[in-house]
Predict the 3D structure of the following.
Amino acid sequence: MPRPEDTIDNLRRAMVEPISIIADPDAGRFLGAAIEEFEDLAIALACIHLFERGDQEGYARNLQLCGLARQHFLRRAGAVRQGDDPYLAASRAQGDLAAFIAGDDSLVRDIVALTVAEPLAWEYEEDFRYRQILHFLMVVPLPIDEVALALLIDAFENARKGAEATRSALCAALRDANEEAFWAAFQELHDEVEARRASPTGTDDPWPELARRLWLEGLVWLALVSRTRRWSAPEPEYPLCPSWGRRRRSVAPAVDHIFTGLPLRL
């Protein structure tokens, strides 16, 4: 079993290639894949800091870095009005969720503002509408606009055509302020994700396995229902949502970071 420090060093070395692509002003269609790889590596680093070192500051810092990568990509794509890149799909992003868990609300607001307003041609509409619900709840002032929330959930229901039943139950319980139903749906969804992740990944790459120890979506939901409904989880711990990895109250602004000064064109 490698030492956490060795794994951190290996992850940082693995970041060199995607960073070199991101730094290239002529990266073009390679940029989205490089950003996504960087996000995966940043989340893997966050997992090492959290699970192996008990370093919550390092955990939050790397989640924030994941969010900064998403922000950088959206800014560059917007600068050239390139709206047909599949990596722009809101539902495949992780940086928005990571930034929210890190507690960087200004970063979350910027990512949400930069995100495309309609699903892309190759994006499942139900996935997009579901992410819209999360985005709304992440940034909306309190008390939440219940009518606006209901409309977003209706759009998700109309799009899903029988799919995503557990997520539908989760959203409906939140809309109806049914705490018992919400936690039952949350536990079911957690168990579904845990069972799916227990299957072999089909790759020898250790980074996806590291990142799979953390369920960002679940951590986001735990924070959202606490914020909007004042509900507390009935279980002190969930395997993929450990209590010590939940949303921070705030994070220091990233005044200078790896994306500072990088080009804003594809």
